[in-house]
Amino acid sequence: MSDMEFQDSSVSRAEEIKVLANEAFKAHKYGQAIDLYTQAIELNGQNAVYWANRAIAHTKLEEYGSAIQDASKAIEIDPKYSKGYYRRGAAFLAMGKFKEALKDFQQVKKISPNDPDATKKLKECEKAVMKLKFEEAIAAPESERHSVADSIDFHNIEVEPQYSGARIEGDTVTLDFVKKMMDDFKNQNCLHKRYAFQIVLQTREMLRALPSLVDINIPDGKHFTVCGDVHGQFYDLLNIFELNGLPSEENPYLFNGDFVDRGSFSVEVILTLFAFKCMCPSAIYLSRGNHESKSMNKIYGFEGEVRSKLSETFVELFAEVFCCLPLAHVINDKVFVVHGGLFSVDGVKLSDIRAIDRFCEPPEEGLMCELLWSDPQPFPGRGPSKRGVGLSFGGDVTKKFLQENNLDLVVRSHEVKDEGFEIEHDGKLITVFSAPNYCDQMGNKGAFIQFEAPELKPNIVTFSAVPHPDVKPMAYANNFLRMFS
Fold first, then answer.
1. Percent of the chain, pLDDT > 90?
2. How far apart are CA 335 and CA 449, in angstroms?
3. Taking 60 as the threshold, does the pLDDT of residue 57 lie above it?
4. How many angstroms separate the CA atoms of 274 and 54, rounded?
5. Domains held by the chain: number
6. CA within 20 to 30 Å of 107's CA: 201, 248, 300, 464, which one?
7. Residue pair 266/235 in contact by the 8 Å Cβ criterion
8. DSSP code, position 160
9. 437 and 341 share one domain
10. Which DSSP category does 406 fall into?
């Protein structure tokens, strides 16, 4: 076969593989689509379409760093290929980088001046950037900011006689109240603002008093359950309690971050978890995830949902309370539980994590950022993050961290997994994800992990999604952002 014939056969084979990749993408099998686009790229790396298509598959898996790289490559191959700019703009947008996104949408408009979709998206992006600039201009300096919590007195909020929902008598949140509230939520009824304020403010006081790294002690013969991301999927949260019992002193849980965003029942999820914390602090432990932050809540729906179901004051209040959430937990000095993962440097001790001043929005680098954002990788060492924030770390990094801190296991969440969990790094790291059929389209199972003392051997339980009312994920997100979800 001549070089020319070989080239032609590679090009046609690449096209066949692209068709298969497109089919996998349409079936929401994004990981499979990425693998197939990669094969097509290996056969013909000069086709901008393959790179741009792989970029959108990365975006669907929230691998925005990889999406930006692929879209940039598509643009490099064909500077007039509007979809390259479009896909990169969408990935920048998903990361909250509105100004970078705006530049890409301006390019799309320049290349396709008569495209009504491009015109509409550019206008919306310009509005988002203007709003951001305005918010930055009027924001008070950190030193002058007052706590919104200090200005709220829930005792003076009147409960109308016609309100028939759950009520807190006095200052004590009881199991009966929590059950009634969950039942109201299940039937799509709201909790009165007075009681919502009471729950959130009481939780804030409890969380503020905790260290950044919380030690959990499970007596011999007792058990403990760790759940991963729930992401506003309230009906799946109810199913976890159905399968594994309600949180109590005898049946304690740790929810490992990302309680909100994406799913459109985030208010119900967060108030339920907070109410259990108020009812019995040792029944439920809560870790901060990367979505317990203002920038994520602005993009992925929680802010809009809070505004719709509660009020603007609650938007500020939740942002404050999220800054009080601990960053990691250690169970019986053996199991390290964190939302994201490990660090860009060796030698990090548990005492370093305890010493983090966490009462702020997550920074873009450093230990706190890495705890919330990092992901494991299958090969040794460290690499750039697929997400564009944090890093990827190998099994050698996990092993060293565990040895240096005399620990046995890392449990983390943060990534959707087909089976709801994945065991990596020679069994030393487990990812657990508790939002089945994530975003109503991923088709994944959810999982939780049961530990029993003293062995603390992980027993993983998987479960499938349950039906929920017909409210789409991201229903409360900004219209512009929904265009890309």
1. 85
2. 12
3. yes
4. 39
5. 2
6. 300
7. no
8. P
9. yes
10. T
Q: Do residue 181 and residue 237 come from a single domain?
A: yes
In this structure, which amino acid lies at residue 264? Answer: S
pLDDT band, very low/low/confident/very high, at 142 (cuts 50, 70, 90): low
Q: Which of 232, 422, 434, 236 is nearest to 341 (CA)?
A: 422
CB 84 within 8 A of CB 78: yes
- Residue 482 is predicted with a pLDDT of 61
58 belongs to the catalytic site: no
165 shares a domain with 126: no
Q: Which residues constitute the domain of residue 275? A: 148-483
CA-wise closest residue to 154 among 190, 203, 195: 195
Contacts of 167 (CB under 8 A, 6+ apart): 159, 177, 192, 195
Residue 279's pLDDT is 98
Note the pLDDT of residue 225.
Answer: 98
At 312, list the tokens.
């603007």
pTM listed for this prediction: 0.94
Whether 217 and 125 share a structural domain: no
99 pLDDT band, cuts 50/70/90, is confident
- Residue that finishes a domain, picked among 95, 115, 138: 138
Q: How many CB atoms lie within 10 A of CB 336?
A: 24
User: If you search the block for the tokens 């950022």, which residue do you land on?
Assistant: 369
Residue 143 falls inside a structural domain: no
Instruction: Measure the CA–CA gap between 446 and 463, rounded to whole angstroms.
Output: 5
DSSP single-letter state for residue 190 = P
CB-based contacts of 345, cutoff 8 Å, min separation 6: none
Of 231, 291, 329, 425, which is the active-site residue? 291
Tell me, yes or no, whether 104 and 157 share the same domain: no
Find the CATH number of the domain harbouring 260. Answer: 3.60.21.10
> 198 with 311, same domain?
yes
CATH code of the domain containing 100: 1.25.40.10
Whether 156 and 71 map to the same domain: the answer is: no
Residue type present at position 160? E
In angstroms, what is the C-alpha Rg of the chain?
A: 23
- Which pLDDT does position 456 carry in this prediction? 97
The whole-angstrom separation of Cα 217 and Cα 222 is 10
Looking at the fold, whether 82 and 180 belong to one and the same domain comes out as no
